[in-house]
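**Paired protein data**
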Amino acid sequence: MTKEEFISSGLLELYATGIASPEETQIVQDHLARFPELKEELNEIEMSLENYALSQSVQPAPSVKEKLFNELFVADDKKAINEAPVVSINKKYPVPLFYKSIAAAVFILLIGSMVLNYFYFNKYHKTQNALDVAQQQLQQKEKSNEAMTHDLNVVTNKYAMPVVLNGTPHAPDALAKIFWMKNTGQVYIDPTNLPKVPQGMQYQLWGIVDGKPVSGGMIETSKGIYHIQKMKSFGKVEAFAITLEKAGGSPTPTMDQMIVSAKM
């Protein structure tokens, strides 16, 4: 049994409450010797049980003590069985073994209930955490699938005209691809092969329309996740270019920071 399997088995909880069987006690002691770090886990369980017991304790009303003593020890001399003497509550008498046994049984049941509650609460907590992780992973996969479907729809669109933007002397190995929709003028960009963006900077797309640069918007490259993105529509365009600008963009392109470009 590995350390993780042993922690999940619930044997530490049984050992902490003193109701583990001799076999279970031996298993726990063997694992404590094998994995010294389990002692910290055991200490946490004992502390949790103590806190739980304190939080669940209820202070009885003062009348309960008097009533309990009356029921247990005060007898009417006329109704006493076998002529039992009248017992005064002002004198101290030992508690009968029968009631001690009942108290011990109730205590054991209470501790057992606490252990089971603690054990199943841990099981529920771990299961809930695993479920949350699985749901997050599923949501991430769904988002990834949606992005891939969107990219595929753009690439396979019959009106999409691909335009490759090659690197400039500032970034000779850079590459980007434009998908220009001939029927609508919509522009999509695939920035996958652009260099990593320096901190505080952002890529900006430009279209040369009637000889003047027009911003096509900022390209999203956060967290290194690049997908085909819809940009501003230009209509008739003569060329495309991408520059590296300060985050948020610039009203005019910084020519010495042109990364890729292409003529139509």
Observations:
- The radius of gyration is 38 Å.
